[in-house]
Write a structure and sequence with these properties.
Blueprint (H helix, E strand, L loop, with lengths): L1 H15 L3 E4 H12 L7 E2 L5 E4 L1 H18 L3 E7 L3 E8 L9 H4 L20 H11 L3 E6 L5 E8 L1
Helix pairs in contact: 2-3, 3-5
Length: 160
């Protein structure tokens, strides 16, 4: 039931979302506040980074990354950065991370890094797949790496 609900939430948001100009740092701050209302998750980044995006979908993608970071780590930090050709939204944590050899599998729907894990924590295996698909809908890329805090660093890279 959780799997179906998660997928339907994603499909509904994608079907009703339309491109809109948005301040990316403000959008990310709002998404983090909704995803982690009781946690103090810092968001760094410049104001005025305006880009045409699917705002609900991008907010959901950021929320999924923050939710994962909080589920697996104790400390989480979010940063929005901009270069000449891309805007990068980074979510880092101090959790166990994802081994490099398993990162592609982690972004597949229903991907499991440990076959013994159960869904008791509400994880249905769609979070990173949804983030990857939403990032691709923007012409971007989802990159997974190692955080300076020791855990996972997930980056949504959006072309400018």
């Amino acid at each position: 039931e959780r799997i179906i609900d998660t997928f339907l939430d994603f499909a509904r948001a994608e079907a009703t979302d339309s491109l809109q100009e948005a301040d990316i740092t403000e959008l990310v701050r709002d998404a983090v506040a909704r995803a982690a209302p009781l946690d103090d998750v810092p968001v760094a980044g410049p104001e005025g980074l305006v880009l045409a995006v699917l705002p609900s979908g991008l907010a959901r993608a950021v929320g999924n990354l923050v939710g994962n970071a909080l589920r697996y780590g104790g400390r989480v930090a979010v940063e929005v950065g901009a270069g000449n050709t891309a805007i990068v939204i980074s979510v880092e944590d101090d959790g166990p991370g994802i081994p490099e050899a398993s990162r592609d599998d982690a972004m597949r729907p229903f991907g499991r890094l440990d076959a013994a894990r159960t869904n008791t924590g509400g994880n249905v295996g769609l979070g990173l797949a949804i983030v990857r698909d939403m990032t691709r809908a923007h012409g971007g890329t989802l990159r997974l790496g190692t955080s300076a805090m020791g855990g996972l660093k997930a980056e949504i890279v959006l072309p400018r």
